[in-house]
Amino acid sequence: MNFITGNKHKVEEAEKIFLKFGLKIQHMNLGYMEPQGTLEEVARFGAKYAAQKLEEPVIVEDAGLFIKALNWFPGPYSAYVQDTLGNKGILKLMENVKNRYAEFRSVVGYCAPNAEPKIFLGVVKGRISNIEKGNLGFAFDPLFYPEDMDKTFGELTTHKKNQFSHRSRSLEQFARWYKNQSRD
Prior knowledge:
about 180 residues, 7 strands, about 35% helix, globular, 6 helices, Maf protein, alpha/beta, seven-stranded mixed β-sheet
C-alpha cells in the first residue's frame, strides 16, 4: 500500500497503527497540487490522482483544525494558516471568545486504479486553550485540549496522542475496512 504524503510524522503514525492490523505501507511523495475545498474533496482528488498516476492502490490523508466560533476556520486551510498566522494568530482571533469548541478532523482517502475513492473520517472534539501549552507534537497541538482532558495535544507524548488522535481514528477505520475487503 502506498501512502502519499510529504509529512514524515504522518508516515510514522500510520506505520504504528497499521502494524496492529498486519498492514505495511510504502511512503511516496508525489507533490501534487491540492484543490481548494473540504478535507473530503482534497482526499478524494489526491487519492484518485495518485492511484491513476502510479497505477496502484494508494491512501492519502488530509487534516485540519476546525474552530466553531470562527465558522470552522481554519479547516482545510490549516497548513496555510499555520504557516502564515501560526498559533499566536489563532489565539489573537480567539481573544474574548467564550465558546472555544473545536475539532481536529482527519480524512483518509483510499483509491485503487480505475475505481472511485473511499473516504474515512476521524474526529477528536475539544477546545482551544487561552495560551500555548506544551512543546510536543506540531502545528496547532499546543492550542488544543481534547475533550475531557486537562492537557493539550502539545503536552501529550506522541504515543499517548496517537492512541486517540483524529489521524489514528481515520487510519484505523481505513485499516479495519481494508482488512475486511481482503477477506471477501
